[in-house]
Design goal:
Layout lengths: L1 E7 L5 H14 L4 E7 L7 H6 L2 E9 L2 E2 L1 H9 L1 H6 L6 E8 L6 H14 L3 E2 L23 E4 L9 H26 L1
Parallel strand pairs: 1-2, 1-3, 3-5, 5-6, 5-7
Antiparallel strand pairs: 3-4
Helix pairs in contact: 1-6
Length: about 180
């Protein structure tokens, strides 16, 4: 069975809702197991991350970058980097911010570079933008990863952003399966 782990930080619950949608997408693919890990709980889950076939990173965009707690997690992976523990794993990322741009691209670039530092293989978003309505798929138009927007004080991302996250999760799961299949043949 292919395993996908989603490790994320969420300051206000918006990125947690996006992470849950990514999880739903991963779980929609037969033969894939999935788990959510909050960065606050990562100390109990390093082995889970090490055993995963794919790791999806999720962070809110704060001030044009990953959140402080997510950056702390990134820095804590240096021992894994030194051991090349995550080399050749599938990687992907998602983010959420309060405004439509919010400099989310910078966060996704930061996550992709982090994955590259670990020797991981990045999977981007494949859904073409379908408009700007709240229920549109990839309404933000991000291709590097899944991006969502949550109005300040809202309960979370729009339905279109959550649907995008579900499709993104399924894409990552399918890529991990293909990569794992190829590695065993």
């Amino acid at each position: 069975m292919t395993s996908v782990t989603i490790v994320y930080h969420s300051g206000y619950g918006h990125t947690a809702a996006q992470a849950a949608a990514v999880l739903e997408g991963v779980q929609s693919v037969p033969g894939v197991s999935a788990q959510l890990i909050r960065v606050e709980d990562v100390e109990n889950h390093w082995e889970t991350l090490d055993r995963s076939d794919a790791i999806v990173f999720g962070s809110p965009t704060y001030m044009g970058s990953v959140s402080g707690p997510f950056k702390t997690f990134m820095d804590a992976t240096s021992r894994r980097w030194l051991q090349q523990a995550w080399k050749d794993k599938i990687a992907a990322g998602f983010t959420n911010s309060g405004s439509l741009s919010g400099d989310k691209l910078n966060t996704l670039v930061q996550l992709a570079i982090f994955a590259a530092q670990h020797g991981m293989l990045w999977v981007g978003q494949a859904e073409l933008p379908a408009g700007r309505a709240d229920d549109a798929i990839n309404r933000i138009g991000s291709m590097l990863g899944a991006a969502a927007q949550s109005d300040h004080g809202s309960t979370g991302p729009s339905e279109g952003d959550l649907a995008t996250a579900r499709r993104f999760g399924a894409r990552v799961a399918q890529a991990a399966q293909r990569w794992q299949r190829g590695a065993t043949t």
